[in-house]
Amino acid sequence: MISKIKIFLEMIKFEHTIFALPFAFMGAILGAVTTFGQLPTWPQIGWITLAMVGARSAAMGLNRVVDKAIDAKNPRTAMRAIPAGLLSSKEVLFFIAASFLLLYIAASQLSALCVKLMPIAVFFLVFYSYTKRFTWLCHLVLGLAIGLAPLGGWVAVTGSINATALVLYVSVVFWIAGFDLIYSCQDIDYDRKEGLFSIPSRFGLKAALMTGRVFHAITAAGFGLLFLLADLNWLYLLGTVVSYLLLIYEHRLVNPNDLSKVNLSFFTMNGVLSMVMFVFTFMDVVVLHS
Predict the structure, then answer these.
(1) Does residue 174 lie within any of the structural domains?
(2) CA-CA distance, 290 to 283, in Å (whole number)?
(3) Which of 70, 150, 262, 278 registers the highest number of CB atoms within 10 A of its CB?
(4) Could you count the other beta carbons within 10 Å of the beta carbon of residue 85?
(5) Residue 218 and residue 10: Cα distance in Å, rounded?
(6) CB 28 within 8 Å of CB 40
């Protein structure tokens, strides 16, 4: 049983929850403080955490089932759990159903709007896994799906959506799309061979990396606008400056002639960035609230 749990956790890359979960907390904190003048409650934080675990686990499980044939032919992914025979598709489908149930239970404990918007979230989580088969905009679709984390955190505690929440959502959408685009550069040859769609396979590495910079410039602008809309203080501004530097460094790690540091750019830098934004936002809000 322990061995099987380890395989499931490896399959969904559970440690990558650090990409989206800090932004979910950031959305919850900003929503609660700007709407009610107080921090979210601990039960709200707990249910948001469970909702995120359910949503992300379902999404990753779906991706592994939908892409099992593609993964089996790609040397980089051939040892994933399903193509390697470590898990069956039926086992993963059961896991997906349980994850969606967890998402529904958690959403029902938060706000009515969370439950009403859940079908939209489920649609994007399912839809993304098929997009690489017909559109090079798949990176943006992934952003639209994972960007729901901060928007979901906001809705969970406020039961509403406003311009500030949407700016946070769009900022994270382009952040996700940008680093997914960089990550997909390492599969350019395989994608072209198999007729799969991505910005690198359609436009080439140089254009793809430039597009990633544009996406992250939109993210940077969004973080700056959020500073004004949410009436934040210097601590948040300091966090955005650190995040800008991380984004710049991330793009300096990769170039069309050297993709050897893609994993460092994808995993380490983006995990650090999400934590930086959350920690500095939290500290700023606590200072303001006090």
Answers:
(1) yes
(2) 11
(3) 150
(4) 7
(5) 32
(6) yes
CA distance 284 to 275: 14
Enclosing domain of residue 243 = 18-23+36-289
Please tell me the distance from the alpha carbon of residue 165 to that of residue 189, in angstroms, as a whole number: 38
User: Letter for the amino acid at 79?
Assistant: M
Which structure tokens are listed for 9? 């956790």
Per-residue pLDDT of the chain (290 residues; tens, 9 = 90+): 678 788 887 887 766 677 789 999 999 999 999 999 999 999 999 999 999 999 989 988 998 999 999 999 988 888 888 998 999 999 999 999 999 999 999 999 999 999 999 999 889 988 998 999 999 999 999 999 999 999 999 999 999 999 999 999 999 999 999 999 998 998 999 999 999 999 999 999 999 999 999 999 999 999 999 999 999 999 999 999 999 999 999 888 888 888 888 876 667 788 889 999 999 999 999 886 55
- Residue 171 belongs to a domain: yes
Amino acid at 227: F
Contact 102, 53 (CB under 8 A): yes
Amino acid type, 213 = R
Does the pTM surpass 0.90? The reply is yes
165-195 residues labelled b (16+ CB within 10 A) or e (exposed): bebbbbbbbbbbbbbbbbbbbbbbebbeeee
CATH of the domain at 78: 1.10.357.140
**Residue 248 counted as domain residue:** yes
DSSP 249: H
Distance from C-alpha of 131 to C-alpha of 109, rounded to nearest angstrom: 32
28 domain residue, yes or no? no
Q: How many separate domains does the chain show?
A: 1
